[in-house]
TrEMBL record:
Membrane topology type: Multi-pass membrane protein
InterPro entries: Cellulose_synth (IPR005150), Nucleotide-diphossugar_trans (IPR029044)
Name by which UniProt lists this protein: Uncharacterized protein
Pfam families recorded: Cellulose_synt (PF03552)
Alphabetical UniProt keywords: Cell wall biogenesis/degradation, Glycosyltransferase, Membrane, Transferase, Transmembrane, Transmembrane helix
Subcellular location as annotated: Endomembrane system
Domain of life, per lineage: Eukaryota
PANTHER family: X-BOX TRANSCRIPTION FACTOR-RELATED
Length: 249
């Protein structure tokens, strides 16, 4: 059974029988307004797969994309049963770099969300709200205030690195050397002509990079840029969805 909900900015698909949640990239989604809900569940559901799609790093800036990713990673759902897949039809090494940065920030953001029952769970939306209203009214205790300031500093540093990389159109050399995934762009000709780029960024089977700062397993996080060739039609978002489902199964 599939349920479709339209919010005026994009479509959100909840395919209950397969535990699949598809979130079409849009400006509305990136502000975290959909992050308060829970993925649909069924009696036989063993996990939930969330698909986030993006297609153009200029129209959909990497910071917008990763705020969407971070908000769905922080869903109120057992994290070891949650998998988030970013389908990048722009095949942008900058978007991949931004996702790597987000995976490190998530190790701090998810425990913070859980501890303080954060809403909305998009960092950008949350910080905008809390610093403009609630924080200035001294609503929170000293511990919350200190942790809020610490997580905001981490976010600001991440945002600065990503936006500098986006502006320059280049990934920092140290990031390229640190993560072997960037080697998949060696065969890259253009966003319309490249091999499949598939990278598992977070997975519970990786003992060195799978837990948050509290020792809790993080959701699985996967980057996918499907193969594209100029002589073959790629069918836009429908083609991206087909590639995600094919690679998932």
């Amino acid at each position: 059974m599939a349920t479709t909900r339209r919010n005026g900015y994009g479509l959100v698909y909840l395919v209950q029988s397969y535990g699949l949640v598809f979130i079409g990239s849009s400006l509305k989604l990136s502000d975290g307004t959909l992050s308060s809900g829970k993925p649909s569940r069924t009696g036989s559901l063993k996990g939930v797969d969330i698909f986030v799609c993006t297609a153009d790093p200029e129209i959909e800036p990497p910071m917008m994309v990763i705020n969407t990713v971070l908000s769905v990673m922080a869903y109120d759902y057992p994290t070891h049963k949650l998998s988030v897949y970013l389908s990048d039809d722009g095949a942008s090494h900058i978007t991949f770099y931004a996702l790597l940065e987000a995976s490190n920030f998530a190790k701090h953001w998810l425990p913070f969300c859980k501890k303080f029952k954060v809403e909305p769970r998009s960092p950008a939306a949350y910080f905008n709200n809390i610093f403009s209203v609630a924080h200035q009214s001294n609503q929170y205790d000293h511990t919350h205030t200190l942790e809020l300031e610490a997580i905001k500093k981490l976010y600001d540093k991440m945002e600065r690195r990503i936006e500098e990389s986006t502006k320059m159109g280049e990934v920092p050399k140290e990031a390229r050397l640190k993560h072997k995934g960037f080697s998949q762009w060696d065969s890259y000709s253009s966003k319309h002509d490249h091999d499949t780029i598939l990278q598992i960024i977070l997975h519970k089977k990786d003992p060195n990079n799978s837990k948050d700062v509290d020792g809790v397993v993080l959701p699985t996080l996967v980057y996918l840029a499907r193969e594209k060739r100029p002589q073959h039609p790629h069918n836009f978002k429908a083609g991206a969805m087909n590639s995600l489902v094919f690679n998932l199964h």
